[in-house]
């Protein structure tokens, strides 16, 4: 693992505790391991060509080998790792274009959801978004990355649900798994900007300003792409 890149993620004991707090069943544990490895691949902690060893990874995360094996099977299906006979799972290359494509897809779906949400959302649902954004603001002020990530997720879940386009929202959630939340929630500047973006988005919803809501919602994904690519450039991901 790259020690410089690893500063953007929680350390091994913290991530182990986080996994154990949120997990009750083996399937959930496998999902959490996959999420951790996915984030480390996306942020360059696990570089292309790196072999992910079952026993080493299990020991680092404080879990058994079984959920690690299942997590790697999931990542193999996503094209993030490849199984090499007699050698194990190796991280596949991740280019700037790959990252741009992932965030482009998210932004495209986000625009569609925002357009529908602006037309359908009720005054009560807008008030709920305001409350959720206040929760995010408090989490940012407390500088708690886990709380920030949870509050940000809750805001967008409520926003997307207000569209009534549940299947499309599900697709966005599926793609959003590639977004390494902790590199954003550990950045104080990002948190402040996210809260302000949400305020502007809420104002646009109250005005029923579709164009503004669409661009404000998509902006968070285009901004996320720029920040992630800048981080990967900084650690020499493509050198």
From TrEMBL:
<keyword id="KW-0805">Transcription regulation</keyword>
<dbReference type="InterPro" id="IPR000524">
    <property type="entry name" value="Tscrpt_reg_HTH_GntR"/>
</dbReference>
<dbReference type="Pfam" id="PF00392">
    <property type="entry name" value="GntR"/>
</dbReference>
<dbReference type="InterPro" id="IPR011711">
    <property type="entry name" value="GntR_C"/>
</dbReference>
<dbReference type="InterPro" id="IPR008920">
    <property type="entry name" value="TF_FadR/GntR_C"/>
</dbReference>
<dbReference type="InterPro" id="IPR036390">
    <property type="entry name" value="WH_DNA-bd_sf"/>
</dbReference>
<protein>
    <submittedName>
        <fullName>DNA-binding GntR family transcriptional regulator</fullName>
    </submittedName>
</protein>
<feature type="domain" description="HTH gntR-type">
    <location>
        <begin position="27"/>
        <end position="94"/>
    </location>
</feature>
<keyword id="KW-0238">DNA-binding</keyword>
<dbReference type="InterPro" id="IPR036388">
    <property type="entry name" value="WH-like_DNA-bd_sf"/>
</dbReference>
<dbReference type="GO" id="GO:0003677">
    <property type="term" value="F:DNA binding"/>
</dbReference>
<keyword id="KW-0804">Transcription</keyword>
<dbReference type="Pfam" id="PF07729">
    <property type="entry name" value="FCD"/>
</dbReference>
């Amino acid at each position: 693992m790259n020690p410089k890149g690893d500063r953007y993620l929680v350390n091994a004991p913290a991530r182990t505790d986080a996994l154990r707090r949120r997990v009750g069943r083996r399937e959930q544990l496998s999902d959490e391991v996959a999420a951790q490895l996915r984030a480390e691949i996306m942020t360059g902690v696990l570089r292309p060509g790196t072999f992910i060893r079952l026993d080493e990874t299990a020991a680092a995360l404080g879990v058994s080998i079984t959920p690690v094996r299942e997590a790697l099977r999931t990542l193999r299906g996503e094209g993030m790792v490849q199984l090499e006979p007699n050698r194990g799972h190796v991280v596949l290359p991740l280019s700037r274009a790959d990252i741009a494509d992932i965030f482009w897809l998210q932004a495209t779906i986000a625009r569609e959801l925002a357009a529908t949400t602006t037309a359908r959302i009720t005054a009560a649902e807008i008030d709920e978004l305001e409350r959720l954004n206040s929760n995010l603001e408090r989490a940012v002020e407390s500088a708690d990355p886990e709380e920030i990530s949870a509050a940000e997720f809750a805001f967008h879940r409520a926003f997307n649900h207000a569209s009534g386009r549940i299947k499309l929202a599900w697709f966005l959630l599926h793609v959003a798994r590639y977004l390494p939340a902790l590199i954003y929630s550990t950045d104080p500047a990002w948190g402040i900007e996210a809260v302000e973006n949400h305020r502007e988005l809420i104002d646009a919803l109250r005005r029923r300003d579709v164009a503004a809501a669409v661009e404000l919602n998509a902006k968070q994904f285009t901004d996320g792409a720029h920040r992630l690519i800048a981080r990967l450039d900084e650690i020499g991901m493509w050198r």
